[in-house]
Amino acid sequence: MKFSTRAIHAGQEPDAATGAIMTPIFQTSTYAQTGLGGHKGYEYSRTGNPTRTALEECLAALENGSYGLAFASGLAGESAILSMLKAGDHIVSCDDLYGGTYRLFERIVGRYNIETSYVTASSIADYEKAIRPNTKLLWLETPTNPLLRLVDIRAVAEIAHRHQILVVVDNTFSSPYFQKPLDLGADIVLHSTTKYINGHSDVVGGAIITNNQEAYEALKFNQNAAGGIPGPFDAWLTLRGVKTLAVRMRQHEENALAVARYLVEHPRVEKVYYPGLPSHPDHELAKRQMSGFGGMVSFQFKGTLADVDRVVRRLKIFTFAESLGGVESLVCHPATMTHASIPQKIREARGLTDTLLRLSVGIEDAEDLLADLEYALA
């Protein structure tokens, strides 16, 4: 089955009991058993739920993975991956990354003597130089959040595997429609399903997909033991959303490219970050590694923080809010929102300034989005 067909059908056979085409919401916490060890594959809904199973199988199919696990949030999924480590282990991560991930590295696992080193996202040599004897994970976002730099997944995976290190790729910005990290050598793929996979800004969730059976068994154990799982209704909402992922992603990309091209020409815009622009430093890598450039655009605004505040207040269609990946367009100020947990000096050293805005370009009519930006920036 090709991608759109898998998104609609993988893991979602008609219900055996009733013939229902849509996967039912199995709103139950426990399951009847006939005797010792006598059950139909489900015992307790923290351990497994049929609605969640359908979602996990669908997402695994979309990423060309063997195993899928759903979580209550993207960060719950990240926590499950980090639970595979022990005190004294070391992580190498790209430096441009989601603020919540940085907070998890520095303020949670860092307390347990697990250290993280940060390297320039696009520098392959830096990853290898940062590896230590105790390095266990190479952690990548590509495209990165919020500066939309790319990491060469295949090249980093080759380095990691020479050192017997696992590669984790946060694929949230691309979605499996535009990028499949497992095919490029990654060991574990992570998603905030809150974003493009669900696509409607009405549920919070996360997912992990892998082909590594040993990693899957460790992650599955943590999913059950720590219990960071989505409820059946959240799983059902995400299944409903993923059915239209392909058509949504095509429109997100078309609109984002129009917005990026508009911003490049605007006199009040200093710099535009979008891998679909030929001027982007990683444009050629994006063409090789991805089948499309996605719906995220960031740009540096000429002015002060007060000017930025005036711009976001004037926007009418772009809503000033955190998150991304929904059908509606959003604008975010990373320095005070998604990346506020990163100290200011570190943020600015990485290029994340107070005049940076991040756009999640929705699927509205592109002409309306451009008119909205024109009014706000005037």
Produce the secondary structure layout.
Layout: H1 3-9, H2 50-62, E1 67-71, H3 74-82, E2 90-94, H4 99-108, E3 115-119, H5 124-130, E4 135-141, H6 153-162, E5 166-170, H7 175-178, E6 188-191, E7 206-210, H8 213-226, H9 232-242, H10 245-264, E8 269-273, H11 283-289, E9 296-301, H12 305-314, E10 319-320, E11 330-332, H13 344-349, E12 356-360, H14 366-377
Parallel strand pairs: 2-3, 2-4, 4-5, 5-6, 10-11
Antiparallel strand pairs: 1-7, 6-7, 8-9, 9-12, 11-12
Helix pairs in contact: 1-2, 2-9, 12-14
InterPro entries: Cys/Met-Metab_PyrdxlP-dep_enz (IPR000277), Cys_met_metab_PP (IPR054542), PyrdxlP-dep_Trfase (IPR015424), PyrdxlP-dep_Trfase_major (IPR015421), PyrdxlP-dep_Trfase_small (IPR015422)
Protein name: Cystathionine gamma-synthase
Organism: Ktedonosporobacter rubrisoli
How is this structure best described in words?
- The chain has 378 residues and is of the alpha/beta class.
- The protein has 2 domains: 3-242, Aspartate Aminotransferase, domain 2; 246-377, Aspartate Aminotransferase, domain 1 (Alpha-Beta Complex), CATH 3.90.1150.10.
- It is built from 14 helices and 12 strands.
- The strands form 2 sheets. It has a 7-stranded mixed β-sheet, sandwiched between helices. It has a 5-stranded mixed β-sheet with strand order 8-9-12-11-10, covered by helices on one side.
- Helix 4 (99-108) links the parallel strand 2 (90-94) and strand 3.
- Helix 12 (305-314) crosses helix 14 (366-377).
- The chain is globular and about 75 Å long.
